[in-house]
Amino acid sequence: MEAILKTLQLFLPTKAYETPSQYEENMFDLFDEVTDEEIGCYSINENGELISFIVYAEEASGHLAKDQAAQVAEKFIDAFHYEKKKEYELSAILDFDKSYIIIYEKREEKYGLFLPNTGFSVTVTTSGLVVNFSLSDEDYVINNADVVISKEEAKKRYVESLDFELAIQKLDEESYKNGDDAYHLTYSVIEHLMDIPADGKEPVSIKEEHNVATIAEQPSPTKSIYQLIGLTSAHKLVDVHHEAGKRTEIWSTLESVQSFTFDMDGPDYHVIKLCFDEETGMLQRVVSGEAFEHPGEELSMDDAKQRAVDLMFSLFPDANKRFKLEALEEPDPIDDDELEEEDLIDLDDDEDPEEYDDEDCYAEEEEDIEFESTYTFYFHLFHEGIRVDQNVTMIEVGKYSGKITNVDLALPETLAYLTLPSKPVISYEEAKEIYQRDLEMELTFIRESDEQDNTIYSLSYVPAFPKTVGHVRVIDAITGEAIYVNVGDAVFL
């Protein structure tokens, strides 16, 4: 693909050469000619046309404005799809601080609306580098039914379906345009409908709610944290690491462990990693990489749940007042001979183990490892009976051993939320009125797939907030302020 590479070279940050990908047909990996470092890849379709391009580079900050980024994107598209570009129009420029996504889409003739995901998408950094390109040129069908309901009727149906949950939320500035990084008592928007079909048909209902149950009060376990996790006298403390107010302990039953890290984002072979807060001594994370060998009898979900609950009461003697447990469905039974195949990584005799990336799998060169399948439990934090958003503790319990194999304790960074009022000033009805004040319903095409994976576009009304651009997702329950999503300095045409 010399012609493609020659043209791509005009947009690459360094002189490069290419090799065919080992993993995907019609894909080519790009390498720096000097360092031989892989710097990106691209793929082509059956006609030899460029359909995707990626540069593996950090998005360095620059001073490129939106219109300048759009010019860079247009230059890139012209270089590869000059004739095809005539079928598309610039439909949006999305601002992501260090980069812009420039989108070109086809415009439907009857209503003059864009068909989403029907064209080019180009990501340009503010330093002027094209780091991503994709072309969607698939076949599709437009269901051009007549519009039979008005915007007013669509808005009425949509608002009637809305619900609000009284919650405690941190309104961070990154997520919300008018956020302040503080905790607030809020009404969080719960959508049951994503859109209202323009032809008047019944919309598809979705559920956005937290199905949680209270936890029965019980005394704190007398066992230590280590015993509750499943450490025994056979486990030895291998190493301890102190950093940034955290203490990470490495435990193993082996006499010697060949290699391990203090990174809590993934397991290391044959060790259990425990992370504690240095100041409070509170357990925060557990990650087990121990091999599982003997299934035995499977624990019931209730028995496994009790082990997770015991751990929570060990950490919080008043766990029943602080947390509620997400209701879980009993999983389908698993045959002992068919234990989670994805947990077992085999290396074929003729494969090179060095080809396996440690970040993608945790297989060693000389053995096959099986990790125990688990039950997973989610504990939602509550204060004065109100859910504290984005604070869900996860505990995994081995289905056979009953050991705690994974813990991720999620608590607010500060205790500021404890001082918040628990009674709203704004009523539920007032919150709903505030929400719909700036709400408009916008006619657009919705992209769907049928049972044969054919793409179909249908007309629907979707919620829009022209004054704020970003959608309102939260109403402050004390002040009544509408808090809307930060979409940057986006432009939609």
What does this structure look like?
With 493 residues, the chain is mainly beta. 14% of the residues lie in helices and 36% in strands. The protein has seven helices and 28 strands. The protein has helices at 2-8, 66-81, 151-161, 225-229, 301-315, 319-322, 428-437; strands spanning 16-20, 27-32, 38-44, 50-55, 89-95, 99-107, 114-125, 130-135, 140-143, 163-171, 182-190, 196-197, 212-214, 236-243, 246-252, 272-277, 283-288, 323-326, 344-345, 369-370, 374-383, 386-398, 404-408, 440-449, 455-464, 472-476, 482-484, 491-492. Strands 10, 11, 13, 14, 15, 16, 17, 18, 21, 22, 23, 26 and 27 form a 13-stranded mixed β-sheet that branches. The protein has a nine-stranded antiparallel β-sheet with strand order 1-2-3-4-8-7-6-5-28, with helices on one face. A hairpin with a 5-residue loop joins strand 2 (27-32) and strand 3 (38-44). The protein is globular and about 75 Å long.
User: What's the rounded overall pLDDT mean?
Assistant: 88
Number of strands: 28
Strand pairing plus helix content: what structural class?
mainly beta
Low-pLDDT stretches are: 332-366
Discrete helix count? 7
Radius of gyration: 27 Å
What is the straight-line distance between the termini?
36 Å
Strand content: 35-45%
Helix content: 10-25%
Q: Oligomeric state of the chains? A: single chain
InterPro entries: YcdB/YcdC_rep_domain
Pfam families: DUF4901 (PF16244)
Protein name: YcdB/YcdC repeated domain-containing protein
Domain YcdB/YcdC repeated: 43-136
